[in-house]
Structure formats: structure tokens, C-alpha cells
Design brief:
Low-confidence stretches of chain B: 1-37
Helix content of chain A: over 70%
Largest sheet of chain B: 9 strands, mixed
Mean pLDDT of chain B: 89
Largest interface: A-B, 47 and 45 residues
Number of strands of chain A: 2
Oligomer: heterodimer
Largest sheet of chain A: 2 strands, antiparallel
Number of helices of chain B: 20
Order of helices and strands of chain A: HHEEHHHHHHHHHHH
């Protein structure tokens, strides 16, 4: 093959070799990133795939037995997996949708000329800077069914008390509240940055055409922010798919997501399988399933966005 | 928590790796030549830092034993490597045993995972049967304590016992008085001989018109369950140590009593060791709870000085004497300062130090001679209305029967007690709760 190779590719290879020296320093600059990426992302990623094809326990990590796709088959019929999948989806929707709508509204308000604007801009970012554990502990107190502030307030207005921990939907709302509280400010700031990049002459032109505040928001701000909104949706989707710390701490650090797994997410299930139940192979299969689910979800997001763009 | 799952795993592995590297670097003050059974009472004459990996509250430092050891062996410095939760500690220990690095010179081993260490990692720990001093002291330990840390044939022993957890019943005298029920320990002991009697007494408490509003008789169905389960010939495993939940007499009867208690609403429905359960010690949400020796310290720390004199201990455990908890100390064969570590563990588990641990921290000795020592046997607790705690727990310790333990006891118990919480708080039917628990257990045993 090498002997009979036509001249074309050979000369192309020669050209490539000639071109390489000029960009060598460029490779040196990106090398540290790729070295770290290979060591801490690619390698664990492939290793997880390898482990997911074995029956292996954490305590006897040196004794792996090859079982092919059995772990994945197990997951397909595993009620804990599908329960976690459903919870991840519902908590994802309950937390992401209000979060992004709120963020958009807050960003819009902060875009006005306000007294103490910088103060408000810093203030909305405070939850993001708070430690997750501290925030969850506070929310746990607020939502405590017996002694919590939320039920106390409900009692004041003569509404029935709600079991914010034991009942499925209230518990999911409570977990979503923590997520929303933490991430709304962050997204608002990203929207604000996007808004300030919109040319102010567009607003002036719209005003001259007789557009009010709301019409300006709909026809100038939203279209101008479209790439930013897409970015936050993608990032929030990934974040929601991997939700872990909030539901873990919401049950005092027990990774079952409530006594009936009512808010166990996929991330939490993976942790429970691997570290509490000792089944690393199954946990790795869950990790890879999560990865595929996230890729699919982001793909759907992008496809929807592109279709809208084409229509617009 | 918005990192990818792969990078999270990477972070865990990286952290484990870094700790492992740090572990290698920090302890080698002097390169040791002596790695045998030890030279002298301290294992070495060179200046050495011994690292001790522990979880929760072992209490050696608090009892002044580190200082005492430093006086005895001025060349030895002890450095504790603590993890708060035993589950987290065990995960870390497993990771380190798998990688063979980052191990401390001494590692604490809890009853929840001793079976795993014995079955899967016995070769990675110093065999105390082959250490002359320790083997000579074997007869001093309670038989079962030595056996739980040994392979079935008894040839390998991975740890020397520290404390054990004989159980009695702790109760709030004032709450029983308020409910118009007897509150002196002897009467209660006669009324709480069996679980059905205990549950009947609980019903009387609930029926009382004068009981403290909102309070219940016992803290949780889990408390009844995890005590009664160890009173069977089997708990979670068969005689070979394989998981056997459905065929176990202990599980069957414990489940029956616990669901009975839950359905009679004599439990407060709190999850043990949760923040609300902790608060209940001071606000009086329940009147009694199953009480291994270490629980006395737990009650004192949660209820504080205000609880002093309100609590008492009944010299009884419904259904027969058994144990809850307890630990061992092991020395990994890969330890950097093996000889010094062996000397330290021998000293810590010796009779005199176990007596000190009881006097200073309420850790009941696993050394039977220490348990018989007057300083232990005659001890009274001022906090618990001057209850003769040494005698109460000593009697129970001598009568205890210990069923076989297995690899997944902790997870199996968690699955069952979680479902009991559902029966208590959500009115789940016991049969449904049982089958849900079996499903969860299947996830662990595979």
C-alpha cells in the first residue's frame, strides 16, 4: 500500500509536516489544558465505561468480572432507575423554568437606571456565592414539617400544613426552591450582560414606532438575547440532569432521596449505587446512561432552537 | 454541583490520590529499620509520628490517652486523621485498601463493616493471633468480640477490640410521672421483660390524659427494630454470613414488633440521628429509647445540663440482652510504622486504658476483665439519676448473645428502618413496606 500510494496524499503529508513548526508554540500553549483534560476527564470517562461493563464492588475493586451490557439491561428494568429518571425530569422542569423566567424579569428590571443599581446587581449574585450545604440546611429548617417557618406561615393564613419532606410533590418543590434560589441571580447576571450588548438605537427606533416597554421587551430584548437564552437553557439542562447536592442534603446526607425515593435524582442514585451499596459497575452504567441522556437533552434543545431560528 | 459526572468522579479520584500522596509524605519522620514485633514497649526507640484513622467520637484524645501515651513513649507523636461519619470513613478506607496507599498506621474498624474487612481484606491487616502480646491477651476479651474480627476458622484476626454496646432502656422519668405511670427502674424492668409487654406499656402511655402534649412513648419503630433484630439466632445473615433477610427469625420478629409499635402510634416517627430526632432529646418528644452504653453520652450532649436528673436507665432490654455498635483497631500491613502502631493498639486495648475510656467517656470495655474492674462495675451516673450503670450494662454484657454478621448489614438495616418510617409517618401498609424494603435490599446484594 505504501509503495503504490499515489502522489497526492504523500505530498499533502509533506506539506503538513512543513506547516507544523510555525504553530508549535500554539500547541505548547494549549497542551496544559489538554493534559489536564485527558487525565481528569477523558481517562475517568473511559475507565467508567470499562467498569460499567463489569460486575465489580468497591470493596473488592481488584476482582472485576466481565458481564458485557448486563448492567445496562438491569437499569432498563430497574424501578429505582426510572423513578430517579422521572424525578430528575420533574425537578428539572420545576426548578429550571421558573428560574429562567425570573432571571429574565430581574435582569430586565436591573437594566433600568436605578438608584443603587450596583448594590442590587451584587445582591442578586449572593445566593450563588453561598455554600450549598449552608443554604440547604437553612431551607431544611424552613421546610421542616413540624417546626418550619413555611408551615407556620401557611397556618397563619389558615391553609393546611404540608409535609415538605415526606410527600412527593411538595418535597420536589422544596428541592427545586433551593436550586431556583441559588441559580436565579447567576442567570440574571448573564441575561443582563446580554441585554447591555443590545444596541440602544434599536430601543429608540422601537419607541419612535410607538412600542411600549412590554413591546420593546418582546420585540427587541428577547430576539437580541436569543443566543444567551439558548446558552442558559443548555447549561441549566445539564445542571438539572446532574442535580445531586441539594437532594442529598435535603435528606440529612442519606442518598435515598427521601423514605420513598420521592426526590432521588439520577446523580443521587448513582452515588447510592456506587458508594452506599458498593456496586461500582452498576453505578458506572448509571453514569454513562446519564451522559447519554444529557447529550440527547441538549441535542433536542439545540434542534428546537435551530428550527425556530429557521422559521423566524 | 454543576460539574459533569465524569469530572466529579475524577475529582473524587484526584482527591483520593492527593490524600494518598499526602499520607505517604507526612508521617515518615525517621526511616524505620525495625518492622518486626517491635523493640521495647513503644515498638521503636526512634522519633516517630503514628497516624491514627478514626471516625465519629472514639474519644481517645478526649479521655487524655494521647497525652498519657506520649508520657509513656516520649519518642512517639500521635496524629489523628478523623472523618465525622463512619459511612464516609469506610468509603475512604475501602478506596485506600483498593489502591494500597494512603493508609494510616492504625485504622478504626466499626461493627458495621468489620465483616467486610475480615472477608475481603484480612490479608491487608496485621494478624493479631501472630502478635505475641495480643494473642496472650485474647482470653481477656469477650469471646464474641474477638470472633467478629476473625476469619471463620479463627486463624486471622484483623483488629483488637475497643468498646462494645450492651443495651438497656433509657427513659425520661419526668415524662412517665406526668403520664401517671410507674417510673422507678425496678418496676419498669419487671414490666418491660418482653416486647409485647413493652408495647402494651406504650399504649398505656399514649392513652394517658395527662401525658405531655405531643409526646410519644418510644422514639421510633427503628429503635425497636434494630434492637430486636439482634435478639434472633440470625439477624441479617445465615450462619455462614450470607445475606438472609427473609429466612431470619430475628428480622421476622423484629419487623412484627416494630410495625405493631408503629401502628399502635406509640412511636414519635422521628428518623434516628436526624436533626429533629436530636432536638427531641431536649423538647421531650418521646419518653424512652433503646440505649446502648454509648447512647448515654449522646443523650447528654443533645439534652445538655437541663436534662440532668430527668433521665434514668431501666436494667432491662425487652426480649433479651444484646449489643449495638462497638469498634476495633487494626494495623494495615502496609502501615509505615507498623511496630509502633502495634505497640500503640496493644496499649489502647489493654485493660487499664479500657477502664479509663469508660470513666472518661462512657465507652463500655470489650475487655471482660476491665468490665469486671470495680471502677467499671461499681460506676453510677449522676446524670442518669445515679443509675448503677456499671452493674446494669455489665450484667447485660455477660448475658449477650451475638448472631452472625455479614457484608451488607448496615445497608439492609437502613432499607428496613426507612420503610418502618413510612409505616409510622405515612401509614404505609406493613406488607407493602416489607416488599419495598426487599426491593431496596436487592439493589445492595445484587
Amino acid at each position: 500500500m505504501a509503495v503504490s500510494a499515489p502522489a497526492g496524499p504523500a505530498s499533502r503529508a509533506a506539506r503538513r509536516r512543513r506547516r507544523l513548526p510555525g504553530s508549535r508554540t500554539g500547541y505548547a500553549y494549549v497542551l496544559p489544558f489538554f493534559a489536564v483534560f485527558a487525565a481528569f476527564s477523558v481517562y475517568p470517562w473511559l475507565d467508567t465505561l470499562w467498569v460499567s461493563l463489569h460486575d465489580v464492588r468497591l470493596t473488592t475493586y481488584d476482582q472485576m468480572s466481565w458481564i458485557g451490557l448486563d448492567n445496562y439491561k438491569d437499569l432498563l428494568t430497574n424501578k429505582f432507575f426510572w423513578n430517579a429518571f422521572g424525578n430528575t425530569l420533574s425537578i428539572g422542569i420545576i426548578s429550571t423554568v421558573p428560574q429562567l423566567c425570573l432571571a429574565l424579569g430581574i435582569a430586565h428590571l436591573l437594566n433600568y437606571k436605578l438608584r443603587g443599581r450596583t448594590f442590587f446587581r451584587v445582591a442578586i449574585l449572593m445566593p450563588y456565592a453561598t455554600s450549598l450545604a449552608a443554604a440547604t440546611v437553612i431551607f431544611l429548617e424552613l421546610f421542616n414539617p413540624r417546626l418550619g417557618l413555611v408551615n407556620w406561615a401557611l397556618g397563619l393564613v389558615h391553609l393546611p400544613e404540608i409535609d415538605w419532606q415526606g410527600s412527593k410533590w411538595p418535597a420536589q418543590v422544596a428541592v427545586s426552591a433551593i436550586v431556583t434560589w441559588r441559580w436565579t441571580g447567576y442567570n440574571a447576571l448573564i441575561y443582563l450582560a446580554g441585554m447591555q450588548a443590545i444596541d440602544s438605537s434599536l430601543y429608540e427606533a422601537a419607541a419612535i414606532d410607538g412600542a411600549g416597554r412590554w413591546a420593546q421587551f418582546r420585540h427587541v430584548t428577547i430576539p437580541g438575547l436569543r443566543p444567551t437564552i439558548l446558552f442558559t437553557i443548555v447549561v441549566s439542562t445539564i445542571g438539572a440532569a446532574q442535580l445531586f447536592g441539594e437532594p442529598l442534603l435535603y435528606h440529612n446526607g442519606i442518598p435515598d432521596g427521601g423514605t420513598q425515593n420521592q426526590y432521588q435524582t439520577l446523580g443521587l442514585l448513582m452515588y447510592q449505587q456506587g458508594w452506599a451499596n458498593d456496586r461500582l459497575g452498576l453505578a458506572s452504567a448509571t453514569a454513562w446512561s446519564m451522559f447519554l441522556i444529557i447529550v440527547a437533552a441538549v441535542g433536542v434543545n439545540l434542534w428546537l432552537a435551530r428550527r425556530r431560528e429557521r422559521r423566524a | 454541583m454543576r460539574r459533569s459526572s465524569t469530572s466529579r468522579l475524577a475529582a473524587v479520584l484526584a482527591a483520593a490520590g492527593l490524600v494518598a500522596v499526602a499520607g505517604c509524605g507526612n508521617s515518615a519522620t525517621v526511616n524505620e529499620a525495625d518492622q518486626g514485633a517491635g523493640s521495647g514497649p513503644c515498638g521503636t526507640t526512634q522519633k516517630t509520628t503514628v497516624t491514627v484513622g478514626l471516625f465519629g467520637t472514639f474519644g481517645f484524645k478526649e479521655a487524655g490517652l494521647w497525652d498519657a501515651y506520649h508520657k509513656r513513649c516520649p519518642n512517639i507523636t500521635i496524629k489523628e486523621d478523623d472523618v465525622e461519619q463512619s459511612a464516609d470513613y469506610w468509603t475512604r478506607l475501602k478506596t485506600r485498601l483498593a489502591s494500597g496507599s494512603g493508609l494510616d498506621d492504625v485504622q478504626g474498624i466499626e461493627i458495621g463493616f468489620v465483616a467486610d474487612v475480615v472477608q475481603n481484606h484480612a490479608d491487608q491487616f496485621v494478624n493479631w493471633n501472630k502478635v505475641p502480646n495480643a494473642a496472650a491477651d485474647k482470653a481477656e476479651f469477650f469471646d464474641w468480640k474477638w470472633q467478629l474480627a476473625s476469619t471463620p476458622d479463627g486463624s486471622k484476626t484483623v483488629g483488637l477490640g475497643t468498646d462494645i454496646g450492651p443495651e438497656a432502656i433509657c427513659y425520661r422519668k419526668d415524662l412517665l410521672d406526668k403520664a401517671g405511670l410507674p417510673s422507678d427502674p425496678q418496676t419498669l424492668a419487671s414490666k418491660w421483660q418482653t416486647w409485647p409487654d413493652f408495647i402494651d406499656f406504650g399504649k398505656q402511655y399514649e392513652a394517658s390524659s395527662t401525658k405531655q402534649a405531643g409526646s410519644h412513648f418510644v422514639d421510633s419503630a427503628a429503635s425497636v427494630f434494630s434492637t430486636a433484630v439482634y435478639q434472633g439466632h440470625e439477624a441479617y445473615d445465615d450462619q455462614q454470613g450470607n445475606p438472609d433477610v427473609q429466612g431470619s427469625d430475628g428480622v421476622q420478629s423484629a419487623w412484627k414488633y416494630a410495625t405493631e409499635a408503629a401502628q399502635a402510634h406509640i412511636t414519635s416517627g422521628l428518623q434516628q440521628f436526624s436533626p429533629t430526632w436530636n432536638k427531641a432529646f431536649s423538647n421531650g418528644s418521646f419518653a424512652v429509647l433503646a440505649c446502648p452504653t454509648w447512647m448515654m453520652g449522646y443523650i447528654q450532649s443533645q439534652a445538655g445540663d437541663a436534662g440532668s436528673g430527668k433521665w434514668d436507665i431501666a436494667p432491662v432490654l425487652p426480649g433479651g440482652a444484646t449489643n449495638w455498635g462497638g469498634s476495633w483497631l487494626g494495623v494495615p500491613t502496609a502501615a509505615q510504622h507498623k511496630a509502633a502502631a502495634i505497640a500503640l493498639v496493644e496499649w489502647l486495648s489493654a485493660k487499664e486504658q479500657q477502664v479509663t475510656m469508660w470513666e472518661k467517656g462512657g465507652h463500655f470495655p470489650s475487655n471482660s476483665q476491665a468490665a469486671a474492674d470495680p471502677a467499671v462495675a461499681n460506676a453510677k451516673s449522676a446524670y442518669f439519676s445515679n443509675a448503677p450503670v456499671g452493674q446494669i450494662f455489665g450484667d447485660i454484657a455477660n448475658k449477650m448473645k451475638i448472631p452472625p454478621i455479614g457484608l451488607y448489614d448496615t445497608q439492609i438495616q437502613q432499607a428496613l428502618t426507612t420503610q418502618l418510617t413510612n409505616v409510622e409517618t405515612k401509614g404505609t401498609a406493613p406488607d407493602k413496606a416489607w416488599s419495598d424494603a426487599l426491593d431496596a435490599i436487592k439493589q445492595v446484594t445484587g
